[in-house]
What we know:
single chain, 150 residues, alpha/beta, Collagenase (Catalytic Domain), 4 strands
Amino acid sequence: MAAQPVLVWSNRQRTVPARQLRLARVSRALQNALPLILDAARKGSVLARLPEVWFVIVSDARITDLHDRFLGDPSPTDVITFQHGEIALSAETARREARARGLGVPEEIARYAVHGLLHLAGWDDGTPSSASSMRATQEKILRRACRGVC
């Protein structure tokens, strides 16, 4: 198995209180998920070559700006992955989606983080078929990684 990158967290928003995010729990879940994601990595993916991956928790306003600037879509989104190893996660979107799904915010943040890591592992969700496959893999990894943590 390839070396695991160090996972670094930075909370850059103030809308969702840090106590709701529970990033220590999410970080433990991601440490559980990382070997599973590396095992599922596509050939030639960047994840195994990265020394660290940065998870940056941002507001809807900030992720909307990133979404527009880099993907040409001026709407909020849940997660944006940059191939240099930075993953932007929207705290506000996570809180909204967690409420709608009847989940906790940490589990939703973990979902976005696993999704971003899968992109770094070479997974793509650009077509309905690839999106379905990626979502199934994401949820399988999330169930195993969050067991007793999220």
